[in-house]
Amino acid sequence: FIFFYYRLNQQRVNLEPGTSIETMRFIRHKKIIASFLVPLFFGLATFSLGHWMYETFFVASPNGMAPKDINKIFFEEFFMVLIFVDVLLLLFSLYQTDDFNKIMRNSGFVISTILIKLSFGVEGIASTFVLVSAVAFGLAILAIHNQFEKIKT
């Protein structure tokens, strides 16, 4: 899937002197959000690890309680933050552009992130199916977006 992502995402924004102010503003918003996300994710990972260690080693488990599902330790909160940020970036992109293909691409990425989050709540092979479907959906949305870009030019 990574190969297909890079193959489909060959069109990058060139920050040349002719780049629009709206695009520069959108990139600046993304950089600001990213600068807040890095310490947030490190803090979330540290808190999750500490909480898991506390529950595993220091809290007595009555009746031989099974260990906590590994997906519930960090990834649920991680993907909730990602969904929130994706929606925030979608709102910024709506403010920047009214191009249908860009709005659909950004909305598709939000849907892919939500599907990945939902895959953690499903058991067995269905979880893998939902996860692969989420990635395939994101790649399909990116391919459709690239076709629209080719038609425009």
What do you see in this structure?
With 153 residues, the chain is mainly alpha-helical. 75% of the residues lie in helices and 0% in strands. It has helices at residues 2-8, 21-57, 75-96, 100-119, 125-152. α4 packs antiparallel against α5. It starts with a helix and ends with a helix. The model has no long low-confidence stretch (mean pLDDT 81).
What structural keywords apply?
153 residues, mainly alpha
Helicity range: over 70%
**What Rg is obtained from the alpha carbons, in whole angstroms?**
19 Å
Poorly predicted regions: none
What class, by secondary structure content?
mainly alpha
Order of helices and strands: HHHHH
Mean pLDDT: 81
Beta-strand content bin: under 5%
First CA to last CA: what distance? 27 Å
Main pleated-sheet profile: none
Strand elements, count: 0
Count of DSSP-assigned helices:
5
